[in-house]
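thread from #wetlab-drylab

HS: before we spend reagent money on co-crystallization trials with flavin-adenine dinucleotide, can we at least see a predicted complex? here's what I'd submit
DV: go for it
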Amino acid sequence: MCIGAGPAGLYFAISAKIRDAGHDITVIERDPPGATYGWGVVYWDDLLDMLYSNDRESAQRIRAESSLWQEQSIALRTDEASYLTGYGYSVNRAPLLEVLASRATELGVRIEYERAAEDLSEFSDADLIVVADGANSRVRQRYSEQFGTIVDQGRNPYIWLGTDKVFEMFTFDFEETPHGWVWFHAYPSSAGVSTFIVECQEATWRGLGFDRLSDGEGVRLLERIFARMLNGGSLISESRGKAASWQRFTQVYNQTWRHDNVVLIGDAAHTTHFTIGSGTRLAMADAMMLAQMLIGHEDTAGALKTFDEQGHAALRVAQAAARTSMAWFESIDHYTDRSALEFGYALAARHGRQPPWQYQRHMITQNRVVRRGLRLANSCRRVYRARRRGESWR
Ligand SMILES: Cc1cc2nc3c(=O)[nH]c(=O)nc-3n(C[C@H](O)[C@H](O)[C@H](O)COP(=O)(O)OP(=O)(O)OC[C@H]3O[C@@H](n4cnc5c(N)ncnc54)[C@H](O)[C@@H]3O)c2cc1C
């Protein structure tokens, strides 16, 4: 039994079924098919390598739904920008979940939509209950003592929007208002639409009146603040019929992810701040690791124990990076008096100590010709990695 048809729950069902077709797996999801929050999520080659080695079929479909972005641009007050080299991918949550749900169904998984888990006693006949119902997991809340749960809220309000302005690069823009700084990061996520996530400090948010404005008024105000970067484009608040609202990031830690035959995976078990773009990858990695542990152990208890230990160990680096990244954005005022070049470096280096040559590298890569050369080198690397994992390169 699996609670929640997000990336964690669906990918667990797929991973368990391809390892043992005899498993009888039901996934329950409180929402109807196709309903989901948010827009695109970014990921890198490491996720594609993992997906291709685990289930080639769903990996290919996810890759086909994804967009490629190259380089990051970090603008301070629109006009001045610095650049970071590299590339990544992004995929909208809705097609990602459609791919995973259809693959799971093909493999014989039952998905029951519009069924919310209320109490674990409903599943007393299940050998294993995989809890994958996201950051605000109800089951985890009910058993918080057993899991040793700690939940904190991030200080900055953020809102997850779309835009019809197509950003080809992964783009940051920081704008100064009379009430403080407001910034967004945006990236392409599907044909003609980019993901657009806005963040600011609490005092700025109140000062600008976002706590009092209606959804529509708030979005119009953001369009005015970022007018030059949007260049005539509009922000889109509604995703699948629901307007986006301002949120605080929920940080989730659990001392243990298991209790009897119940196991937490994905955001129900742990979250990592969205500015490091890793939550979906970690949720799918949990799913795959758990399926592998179940096949590799004779008893479920042993599998869950190993999953808990190895999963926590594997998460440490990402969780530390996410905490530092969230804190960096919460103290943005410490950095905005720098030049765009220095500011871009501070943003890139926010995860921790950098090797001494990193700063020189940042300076050199501001040169357009150098960047063009690196873009070419990265394209070769990308094609090499795509071929190595068996992807037909594009
Ligand atoms: C603004 C923002 C930007 C992000 N950007 C990125 C990014 O760029 N890259 C990245 O890798 N990650 C990103 N993430 C993180 C990513 O969205 C999550 O880590 C990921 O969705 C976790 O997957 P999950 O399956 O654990 O949870 P979810 O995706 O939240 O899925 C949980 C599912 O459980 C269902 N559910 C909830 N309660 C119940 C119930 N009682 N019964 C039945 N079903 C229930 C929900 O409806 C949902 O479908 C971002 C997150 C945010 C907030």
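DV: The radius of gyration is 21 Å.
HS: ok that's useful, forwarding to the group
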